[in-house]
């Protein structure tokens, strides 16, 4: 059945919309404002600033939305990576471990933690950056395809209340809109940063630099924009080799060593920390070309090409020293009268353990293409055609299968090749405005994902060629959807939005291989419908009340669905009946305009019921127990979010923004793992809060002070990890940030900032960044 819907939907959508196709007009916040003022809202209607902007946002927004402009980012945030723009927005957290963290910077939202990357969607100029090939730390949005200097603004939609998005929007939709010039402009920015990192046996400074340049112009009907960026960053260690004290054997055998650091793991068990690993030196190059041409005054075509290259080397530091003071990386060692083994690896055994202390090399080249054609008549009909492609042109990870120091000069290893992986999207959208009271939006969307991974042995892990296959994995998924959403202004005070989304999901061509055998997975093909409804009531000129309800169905990603290993010609440890996550989410909001429209106070109650949530867990109902991705029967979240923004508070030039989020997120039912019932959902803290105070002393000087807080989190479903401030732990934190920006003259500006000013040491499995100084010099023409 998987191919029956697609031709009919395409034909109907194009036939219905092609004569008049619609631009998703660029949606700003609910009131007019200057770009350098905090965003605020004053009434039910949205203001459409630029109808020709390439954005995923629908015209009518049936949910809470927050945003930040380029000028606000420049003023308040020490922004080096694109995700830094989200630092102070309500209920959001990006798990960024170091500058340039490309593969673990997961976005967390109200009821979704940093282990649930597939429960949010990130776009840039209509191009999908969310990596929906999997769900978890290694499937993060491709933040590197956007640089801070490109950003015109960022908007965030909370919850799955718009029919224009798939079930992956259950947490939030983040939409980056990058610059397109109205006249000639040029920009150059130089950034330097440095971190003093002290943890376990590591006490070092890690530094880096970034250079970015942009040019753009508009000449008649043609506008263009070019951005180049290079980031050179030394990151602090993110992992620590360890040995449980209980794993030691009382003996005099092994090399007697000193330097091991005693500690306790998240479960409170004593262990030794023996080495720092995952110290990444990363060089990232980014290039972006954007072209736009106004075919007619109401018809615009645009094209975006993005390239991102990452060369990354991982190094290690052993804490262990033998009697002569030499570092020890492998073999039997003796710590305080007990023998432990630091695994080298037996490459003749495909099930052997990995090296305890190892390095790696990454060579990555990813490309994106985005094409958009849209009308902007503002009349009865408008339309939009959009397509995008994200291509893993090159994605190579090299790692040794021999221990240091032998690995430092080569030796056997494995090459993981992800070339051929990627995704593409197609959308046909329409807007019908039959009268002043109705705006109807509808469309067809297709998202296709392809995951390809091959692991090969090599004689030289540093520069050798692939030889024999060690393992391989592949899988495809496709989502075809049609949606309809109607906004109806009943009168001057009441407005409703009704919508629905029908989705046809298929997963196919899944296969897994070991050295000799390739076995196929069964195909999947399912259909789902998700209704949406919202209502807004303008109680007074300054007070708006809103309520939204929506269903979201988050389909299994190919890596979740096609899991397992090959054993004796059989795929084991796989759940062929893994179900999609199904969530009902609601929110109730009161928005009060303050200070003659310069400020806003928002109170939002939110609720989410999710059945069949997908988590890695141990199924205790079978013998032997199986650990893999399974469905958790029910998770319920109730919460309250308070958000405040105001300008010229107390004195002229003082802007304040603050938010507090409370979330009671508990596992209500989980038959396969009863010990988790009644426990907190992993990585969703009970409390989150942000505060930003920015003061414009004059036209040249701006100072900003920020505070970020997150409460206690758990990493395990049964909340057994009760020691949070350690490697593998998930801790609370309260950190402060500082930024001072001075405009030297019309073109030149300089800024200096400190992130984590109070030098809080905190963890989300890996250590976060400690106190860091950021300095920048910028030229704008």
UniProtKB/TrEMBL annotation:
Top-rank lineage group of the source organism: Bacteria
Signal peptide limits: 1-27
Membrane topology: Multi-pass membrane protein
Keyword Transport: yes
Domain TonB-dependent receptor plug: 60-173
Occurrences of domain TonB-dependent receptor-like beta-barrel (ranges): 321-757
Places the protein is found: Cell outer membrane
InterPro entries: Beta-barrel_TonB (IPR000531), Beta-barrel_TonB_sf (IPR036942), Plug_dom (IPR012910), Plug_dom_sf (IPR037066), TonB-dep_rcpt-like (IPR039426)
Keyword presence, Transmembrane: yes
Keyword field: Cell outer membrane, Ion transport, Membrane, Receptor, Signal, TonB box, Transmembrane, Transmembrane beta strand, Transport
Principal location class: membrane
PANTHER family per UniProt: COLICIN I RECEPTOR-RELATED, TONB-DEPENDENT OUTER MEMBRANE RECEPTOR
Homology family: Belongs to the TonB-dependent receptor family.
Protein name: TonB-dependent receptor
Organism: Undibacterium amnicola
Classification lineage: Bacteria, Pseudomonadati, Pseudomonadota, Betaproteobacteria, Burkholderiales
